[in-house]
Design goal:
Rossmann fold, 6 strands
């Protein structure tokens, strides 16, 4: 089994990265292969709604999207983490999730049968809305099984 964490924080060594790494460490201790992708190190443009993926069976924009999407397809578990800015996930996450959803359906490369969970980190209000936004992305993307883990 392979678990992939996608960190949508623009900050180096921030709280989102910390909690995702904590999750990966727990999974690695159980013998699961893990990997973290830092979106701050990637260039992923917003979906243009051009429908190029329909004919090409892949997104036609040239950036780091296909690399990340390929790793998402290889993983058995996907954890998307984002800090909460103004009551929503940080802006690095949205372009990836928009394009994954569109490209997966257009290309037939769905994310069926994977497990996953959102990880949100906030100092003040808005975490519930951000968590719900990320959680909805899992449901939209073809029957993800939501992983629930509470650490005491």
């Amino acid at each position: 089994m392979k678990a992939l964490a996608i960190c949508g924080s623009p900050r180096e060594k921030g709280n989102t990265e910390f909690y995702l790494q904590l999750l990966l460490d727990e999974l690695a201790a159980k013998g699961i292969e893990t990997e973290m992708i830092m979106l701050k190190d990637k260039v992923i443009h917003h979906c243009k709604g051009c429908y190029g993926c329909l004919s090409h069976k892949a997104c036609v924009q040239k950036d780091d999207f296909e690399e990340v999407f390929g790793k998402m397809q290889e993983a058995d578990a996907i954890f998307v983490g984002a800090p909460v800015y103004v009551s929503r996930p940080a802006s690095l996450v949205s372009p990836l999730l928009e394009r994954v959803t569109f490209s997966a359906r257009a290309s037939g490369r769905m994310l069926s049968g994977k497990i996953g969970a959102p990880v949100t980190v906030a100092r003040r209000a808005g975490q519930t809305f951000a968590f719900a936004e990320l959680l909805l992305w899992y449901f939209i993307n073809d029957k993800f099984k939501i992983f629930s883990y509470i650490r005491n």
